């Protein structure tokens, strides 16, 4: 089991330097990963300050040495895949091969899509995601590459340098369970990040994770390592009782097949109610306590 953090890059965290400092804290506290939401604007808080996460991830790469990091997740449908290919390869080189690319079709958020001239239809965005992944991985190879699809066209492009990681930067694919198409898509790549279809803010249960693992495994055509990512929360490590309860929760998900526990560190878990300021000290203290590691891990 590996342990990551899931951090919102808006509000009081809308500062690349603050996020880079938090990532350094996380690395020193023993976390394995540091992952950011990727949004341009929020439907429920449209005037919230927000940092561009690719600028923030660059700062994180410069401030840390070991920890893995990346977007969780970036919607390729509102990106130019060739621009994303350059950004990700450059960032992977800068970090010495520590980037993980989480991707998805994107949430239903009209201010971030239709209001900015981007496609709102999820089926269209899913098709653009599939094409975008083909272009990304094609350009990452560092060889002349061409592609013709319904949404994108590439003619004889050759991108050098390639990413530091070979054969490619790991790709985790998000999807709403029990929708099956996103899980089949994930099976073609390097990891799955399942979310609840009925309420994506609610944690997946261990039983749901087992269902996802069984379905994805049945559709895998490779025996390469594959990650199962779960975003959740634990009581913390303020006491021996809390630490034991946290480890017991994580153990249940490990038994279900989870390989990455990603702890959600949003202001809401500290009873924030959309009024400033954020409970930043409590959030930072939670990060500094380190991950809810299983005994012996």
Please provide a written account of the structure.
- The chain is α/β, with parallel strands linked by helices and 297 residues long.
- It has a domain at 73-168.
- The chain has 8 helices and 11 strands.
- The protein has helices spanning 16-29, 53-63, 81-95, 122-140, 181-187, 206-219, 240-256, 280-288; strands spanning 2-7, 33-36, 68-71, 74-75, 101-104, 145-148, 153-157, 171-177, 191-196, 227-232, 260-264.
- The strands form 2 sheets. It has a 9-stranded parallel sheet with strand order 3-2-1-11-10-9-8-5-4, with helices on one face. A two-stranded antiparallel ribbon has the order 6-7.
- Strand 9 (191-196), helix 6 and strand 10 (227-232) form a beta-alpha-beta unit.
- Helix 5 crosses helix 6 (206-219) and helix 6 (206-219) runs parallel beside helix 7 (240-256).
- The longest helix has 19 residues, at 122-140.
- It starts with a strand and ends in a 9-residue tail after the last helix.
């Amino acid at each position: 089991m590996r342990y990551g953090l899931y951090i919102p890059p808006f509000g009081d965290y809308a500062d690349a330097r603050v996020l880079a400092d938090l990532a350094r804290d996380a690395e020193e506290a023993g976390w394995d990963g540091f992952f950011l939401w990727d949004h341009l604007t929020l439907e429920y808080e449209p005037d919230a300050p927000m940092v561009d996460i690719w600028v923030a991830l660059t700062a994180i790469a410069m401030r840390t040495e070991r920890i893995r990091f990346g977007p969780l997740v970036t919607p390729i449908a509102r990106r130019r895949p060739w621009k994303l290919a350059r950004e990700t390869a450059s960032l992977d080189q800068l970090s010495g091969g520590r980037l993980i690319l989480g991707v998805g079709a994107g949430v239903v958020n009209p201010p971030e899509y239709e209001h900015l001239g981007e496609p709102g239809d999820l089926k269209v965005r899913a098709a653009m995601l599939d094409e975008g992944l083909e272009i990304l991985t094609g350009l990452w190879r560092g060889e002349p590459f061409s592609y013709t699809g319904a949404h994108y066209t590439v003619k004889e492009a050759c991108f050098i340098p390639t990413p530091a990681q070979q054969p490619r930067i790991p790709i985790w694919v998000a999807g709403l369970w029990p929708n099956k198409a996103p899980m089949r898509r994930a099976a073609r790549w390097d990891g799955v990040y399942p979310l609840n279809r009925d309420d994506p803010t609610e944690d997946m249960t261990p039983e749901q994770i087992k269902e996802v693992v069984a379905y994805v495994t049945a559709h895998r055509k490779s025996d390469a390592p594959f990650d199962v990512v779960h975003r959740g929360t634990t009581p913390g490590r303020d006491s021996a009782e809390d630490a034991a309860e946290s480890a017991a929760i994580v153990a249940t998900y490990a038994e279900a097949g989870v390989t990455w526990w990603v702890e959600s560190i949003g202001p809401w878990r500290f009873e924030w109610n959309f009024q400033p300021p954020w409970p930043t000290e409590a959030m930072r203290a939670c990060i500094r306590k380190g991950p809810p590691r299983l005994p012996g891990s």
